[in-house]
Amino acid sequence: MSINKQSLRAALAMLGTIIGAGVFAIPSVFRQYGIGWGSLIYWLIAILVLVTHLLFSEVILQKTIFRRMRLPGMVSSILGPNWGKIAFLTHPSQIIGACLAYIVLGGEFLYALGGEKIISSVLFWQFVFWAGGAVTVLIGLNFIAKIESWLTWILVASLLMSVVLFSKIADPNLFFQVQAEWAWSPIGILVFSLFGLSVIPEIVELAGSKREPVHQSITFGTLGAALLMWLFGVMAYAAAPSNDTSALGYASVLSARTRLIIPVIGFLAVATSFITLMEGMRRMLVADAKLHKNTAKVLALSAPLILLFITQRNFLSIVSFIGGFFNALNAIFATVMVVRLKKIYWPLGISGIFLLILISRILNLT
User: Fold this and answer.
1) Domain 5-365 sits in which CATH superfamily?
2) How far apart are CA 11 and CA 222, in angstroms?
């Protein structure tokens, strides 16, 4: 199956958006489940998410008017205004929560890349990261769009380089250990890490709104990101199996000459994803909520900043909750819309799995 230039650009956009903050949470999943059992669960979730992405693209391709909407608008149109109101809460919450995770990590990476020598406050550098992303969304998005493919290639190369570095010091015994302990929180982490539903409308547009190129782009982008993150997660855990679950904890096992590659990867991953998601949030507020574009920008950019100052800024807790709750809810909306539009019922099985993930997340909160 060949892929043309247009589809490749869309696939790279998909890949670059998915590889975000979640890549640094994946080693904690293998710490919980072990590499063998964890890999099986990881790829089952990856296939589940891929099918959800493809199903949502079918909704967008169904009618031209849907290509100007985002998830809340489509839910209102297809499932009714009452469900649409819920989607107007869950979809922005998913994006805002993801962006909060990106700000938390982005500031840590700026701090590690030399910021600590200037101002020794991680919170300050988290604010600087947000400010840089805000300025880019407000005035410089065209420039980022021109170099986005190059940034994604740099990200891919950096990830592969880190995999090689980790593989040289990985403990081979960890590949054969079996963990019997089960927990639900890593499932939310995996859903968050692999989820790219909010960018599917842009992928459909980039791929020319034609079914085969759209499906190619989504498949290559989702599975490509999944493979890269799986390699990183496995090797980072095998090289640094300690209890340090921070993103920079994995860098400590590398040599002084090479450990900066981790914050470099991190900054590239979270910066590109943060900008893409903020722009997606702005478009949703304009297209579905009918807000003025400037008002939409202010709301999109201010929400994660406010959360930064009122939450505990625990990275793993953030991604586990967002993945297991808001991402799962939005996946249910996407799959049920396909059932309503195309009168096919097997996607209800996908909805049921996400409902189980959602219930487990709710029970875990009580």
Assistant:
1) Amino acid/polyamine transporter I (1.20.1740.10)
2) 8
| Per-residue pLDDT at 6 exceeds 70 | yes
- Rounded mean pLDDT, 252-271: 79
Give the integer Cα–Cα distance in Å for 138 and 82: 32
What pLDDT is stored for residue 175 in this prediction? 85
* CA nearest to 229, candidates 47, 41, 26: 26
pLDDT at 224: 95
DSSP 325: I
111 CB-side CA count, 13 A = 17
- Three-state SS for 47? helix
Residue 48 to residue 231: CA distance in whole angstroms: 19
Choice among 9-23, 142-156, 168-182, 250-264 with the minimum mean pLDDT:
142-156
Give percent of the chain above pLDDT 70: 93
The candidate with the shortest Cα–Cα distance to 191, out of 319, 316, 104, is: 319
Q: Which structure tokens are listed for 285?
A: 């507020």
**Ranges of each domain in the chain:** 5-365
Distances in whole angstroms, Cα of residue 95 to Cα of each of 53, 56, 118: 16, 17, 31
